[in-house]
Q: What sequence folds into this?
């Protein structure tokens, strides 16, 4: 279950409290997130929506340990990540987060197999175990026959599948998707969303996704809107934004 | 585990036009570095190989070279009877030598160059065992005949077998060519010391040095003690190989310093080339680096990866530089020997050790050119770089 009012309990997989993020730009301070609360349970599929500049990607970066908040706390599976050192946070990311990017972010000089294997190089798995994991991940996304292709030899949809395989290969605690269908046509987008739904439904993955597309967002269990630095459930309205901000 | 090396190999291959700037710069620098050192190496080897550890060289006390030395005939006779000197069928294995300079035109330019003309005893080949006649025969004592070293034979006009050449006031016939194993003697002309000194109006009772073949290598100490403690003599006794090694230091130091300076200046350019290549690699691959960081690769892994890439590029540059100059190995050139003011032919001498030094030099340039870009790569803000197009 997903809550944004700070009423979640300690059983939540992801627990965000009073999250603030402020940027300085040209001497001016811009507050992107303002006391944001969020609780996500294991197996939830959450979509974040909101206008450009509302802080969706900032929130995703903070949840993924790629950025640090100005104030507040983020606790994932009992670990508070907001006070971790840079190197601890890097290790934490490797173990707990799977990233799926809008532009795929595959390494162009590595094959699909090698791209998917990257996160496993940070584990203690043997070469043969790594191979089994990579082959399984690529099979799950339906690219078992494309593992030795380079990204340039794949379509956009196939590239995104490789990215998903890379995200799930190390069995992370949760997946963060930043506009996973933003660069795809409708058909490919549907296929990718079906795959993400399968990861949630069949494999019990927890997925947090940023999207501009209401059709895509509708496939999540819960859609949260980010406006003026806070999250509100369902369709955003001025009143609900104010209510969320007060919480 | 570190970022896989295949990433660096393929990245270099994918951006070869950028990498080639660094490779060429480093190859050129290493080439000059190795060539200069091989010159110094060749010069040193030529002089050092002139000396034998089994021979002692006796010069005037305090003399820095044969040219500033003088040993009178009566001193030579005392030396011949000293302990520690080997004896042959014709008596003690001692050659009292007169060293002179003769201007002889170079074949290449036609201009005169100073050639060292050495008056040697008839038994010199028993003392200098590395020297052998390869054409013609040895000169006959008492006759106006000379034998010439193989480099002198090919470098100077008129020093061909059967030819006659004017040295001092006498015309001399070239009756033989000798091979001194690539030593400085190969650039010399040898003849009868008494006739040579007479041809140059010098007293024939005065020599520049005495070389003696020792009964054993250890007997040098005995010979030195005997000669330096003799009140009738004022001489220094050196192992011949040490004397020639010392003779080479001035020129090799000059070549090494000059070469080092040139290589250093070129290295600055090459390091900037490598810096440029690596900074552009970091700039081009900001998103890839950020992705690696997001996946969990730490800053040190990124530094190591980019440093490794710089080392790969510099290694290839170093290897190409070494291969390019390898063909110089054995090519003979000549220069003035500052100790004797004579022209000395010597060959570029490229050894495995020198090539290893060239590769190490290239890797040092790689580290200097790669470290700062690598640190910058590791410090890229991940969240920002991930959003680059």
A:
């Amino acid at each position: 279950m997903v809550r944004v009012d700070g009423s979640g309990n300690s059983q939540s997989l992801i627990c965000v409290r009073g999250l603030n993020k402020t940027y300085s730009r040209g001497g001016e301070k811009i507050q992107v997130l303002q006391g944001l609360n969020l609780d996500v349970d294991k197996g939830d599929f959450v979509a974040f929506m909101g206008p450009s500049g509302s802080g969706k990607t900032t929130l995703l970066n903070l949840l993924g340990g790629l950025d640090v908040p100005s104030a507040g706390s983020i606790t994932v599976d009992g670990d508070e990540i907001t006070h971790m050192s840079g190197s601890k946070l890097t290790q934490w990311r490797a173990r707990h987060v799977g990233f799926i990017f809008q532009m795929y972010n595959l390494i162009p000089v590595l094959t699909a197999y090698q791209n998917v294997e990257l996160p496993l190089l940070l584990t203690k798995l043997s070469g043969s175990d790594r191979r089994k994991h990579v082959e399984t991940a690529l099979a799950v996304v339906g690219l078992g026959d494309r593992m030795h292709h380079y990204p340039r030899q794949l379509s956009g949809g196939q590239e995104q599948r490789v990215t998903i395989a890379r995200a799930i290969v190390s069995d992370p605690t949760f997946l963060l998707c930043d506009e996973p269908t933003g660069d795809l046509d409708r058909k490919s987008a549907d296929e990718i969303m079906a795959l993400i739904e399968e990861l949630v439904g069949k494999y019990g993955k927890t997925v947090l996704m940023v999207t501009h597309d209401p059709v895509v967002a509708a496939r999540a269990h819960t859609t949260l809107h980010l406006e003026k630095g806070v999250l509100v459930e369902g369709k955003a309205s001025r009143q609900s934004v104010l209510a969320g901000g007060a919480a | 585990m570190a970022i896989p090396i295949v990433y660096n190999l393929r990245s270099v291959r994918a951006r070869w036009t950028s990498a080639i700037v660094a490779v060429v710069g480093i190859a050129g620098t290493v080439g000059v570095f190795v060539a200069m050192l091989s010159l110094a190496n060749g010069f040193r080897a030529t002089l050092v190989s002139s000396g034998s550890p089994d021979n002692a060289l006796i010069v005037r006390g305090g003399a820095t070279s044969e040219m500033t030395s003088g040993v009178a005939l009566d001193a030579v006779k005392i030396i011949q009877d000293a302990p520690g000197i080997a004896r042959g069928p014709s008596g003690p294995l001692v050659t009292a030598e007169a060293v002179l300079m003769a201007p002889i035109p170079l074949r290449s330019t036609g201009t005169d160059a100073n050639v060292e003309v050495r008056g040697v005893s008839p038994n010199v080949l028993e003392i200098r065992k590395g020297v052998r006649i390869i054409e013609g025969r040895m000169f006959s004592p008492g006759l106006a005949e000379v034998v010439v070293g193989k480099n002198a034979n090919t470098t100077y006009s008129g020093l061909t077998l059967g030819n006659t050449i004017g040295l001092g006031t006498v015309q001399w016939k070239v009756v033989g060519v000798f091979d001194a194993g690539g030593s400085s003697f190969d650039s010399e002309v040898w003849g009868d010391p008494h006739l040579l000194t007479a041809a140059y109006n010098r007293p024939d009772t005065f020599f520049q040095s005495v070389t003696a073949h020792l009964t054993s290598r250890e007997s040098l100490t005995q010979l030195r003690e005997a000669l330096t403690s003799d009140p009738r003599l004022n001489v220094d006794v050196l192992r011949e190989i040490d004397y020639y090694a010392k003779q080479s230091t001035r020129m090799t130091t000059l070549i090494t310093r000059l070469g080092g300076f040139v290589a250093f200046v070129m290295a600055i350019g090459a390091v900037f080339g490598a810096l440029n290549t690596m900074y552009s690699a970091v700039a081009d691959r900001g998103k890839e680096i950020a992705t690696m960081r997001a996946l969990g690769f730490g800053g040190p892994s990124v530094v190591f990866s980019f440093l490794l890439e710089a080392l790969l590029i510099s290694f290839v540059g170093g290897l190409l530089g070494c291969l390019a100059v390898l063909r110089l190995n054995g090519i003979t050139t000549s220069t003035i020997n500052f100790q004797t003011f004579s022209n000395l032919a010597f060959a570029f001498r490229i050894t495995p050790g020198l090539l290893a030094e060239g590769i190490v030099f290239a890797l040092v340039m790689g580290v200097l050119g790669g470290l700062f870009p690598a640190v910058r790569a590791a410090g890229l803000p991940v969240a920002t770089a991930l959003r680059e197009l």
